[in-house]
Each structure stands twice: as C-alpha cells, then as structure tokens.
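In the design runs reported in the main text, the only information available to the sequence generator was the tokenized backbone. The following block is the verbatim input for one such run; it is reproduced so that readers can re-run the procedure and compare outputs position by position.
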C-alpha cells in the first residue's frame, strides 16, 4: 500500500479549524513519506500499521489519558465499518 501525500477529506479533518486541519495534513504527509520509505526498504505494511497504531495510541494516552483514548478508540468501530479509512472506496 502506498500512502499518498495529498489525500484530502481524511476522517473528520474537514470539520476542524483550518490551522489544525493544515497541521494534521502536514503530519500525514510526513507519515506517508516515512511509510513509503520503510516499504521501499522491505518493511511490510502490516508491520508498519501495527507500529503506527502502537505509537499513536501511546501518544494519545500520554496526552489525553487512558479513559479518553479508550472512548476515542471505541468510536472508531462505526467509522471503520462505514469506509472512512478505506483508501480504495469510491466517494460519491
């Protein structure tokens, strides 16, 4: 899987204030670049996904606490099932 640097409308980014949306888009571009370089070096996308989730969750717990992070993770179920994280879905 190749992550693209210019993906717009990711998750609920469109609902954020423009400065925060821009900062998150820039962060995603950095992650996409690192992800693609790691894949080029032979690291599997599954290993990258697990490592990314671990890093993201530990950072969220550090900044927001375990309870708030658990609540956020619980809310992901419906978003994943609705296709929000499917890069191959067609937008209508």
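Verbatim output:
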């Amino acid at each position: 899987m190749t992550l693209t640097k210019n993906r717009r409308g990711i998750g609920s980014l469109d609902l954020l204030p423009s400065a925060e949306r821009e900062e998150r888009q820039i962060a995603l571009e950095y992650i996409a670049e690192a992800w693609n370089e790691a894949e080029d070096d032979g690291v599997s996308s599954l290993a990258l996904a697990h490592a990314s989730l671990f890093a993201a969750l530990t950072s969220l717990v550090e900044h927001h606490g375990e309870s708030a992070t658990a609540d956020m993770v619980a809310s992901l179920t419906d978003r994943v099932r609705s296709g929000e994280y499917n890069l191959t879905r067609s937008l209508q």
